[in-house]
Amino acid sequence: MSDLWSLFAVFCLFIGGLNGSQRRKSRSLCHLNSAESFYDFTAKDLNGKNVSMSEFHGHVVLAFGFQEPAENSYELMNGLKYVRPGHGFVPNFPLFEKRDVNGKKEDKIYSFFKSRCPAPDGFIDDLSNIRWSPVRNNDINWNFEKILIDHDGQPFARYTAPYEPNAMFDDIQTLMLTCQEQRRRIYHP
């Protein structure tokens, strides 16, 4: 496989212990640009159905990719349940089809994320791990690198793989409180 493949998973709040690269955990804040949003994109789920990301409008979303060698959704789900992370794990959030996250065939949603969110640690992985071309300084570095998206579909922060969702609690809570406050102002002026 010459390109880095990824499954794109989206969920509102998921607390879990999924390991990634052994590098240090770090995050970068994203650049605000209201001209385009996460909700402008569609993706195919594991069953091949087109899903508009606008279905997640009004929710705080955590998006991440992970490399998985599965050939089909059945094999993928069994891999998650019994191997990685294993222990009977069954996702309670939508999973989407494999896609390129870097290189010349890079999916548009990842181009969007990377245009708005700089690489958290400011460098690309060890060159021996790179299997795509061209290489850019803001490429997705490892499985489970995450993008936190606010309720308006604007990327807020990008996190390295070792950054577990429970360590993002303050960022998630801030975005949820902002959403609640905005709704309060709209519906109860």
TrEMBL record:
Any one of the GO BP annotations: response to oxidative stress
Signal peptide: 1-20
Matching PROSITE patterns: GLUTATHIONE_PEROXID_3 (PS51355)
InterPro entries: Glutathione_peroxidase (IPR000889), Thioredoxin-like_sf (IPR036249)
Molecular function as annotated in GO: glutathione peroxidase activity
Keywords of the record: Oxidoreductase, Peroxidase, Signal
SUPFAM superfamilies in the record: Thioredoxin-like
Family, per entry: Belongs to the glutathione peroxidase family.
Name of protein: Glutathione peroxidase
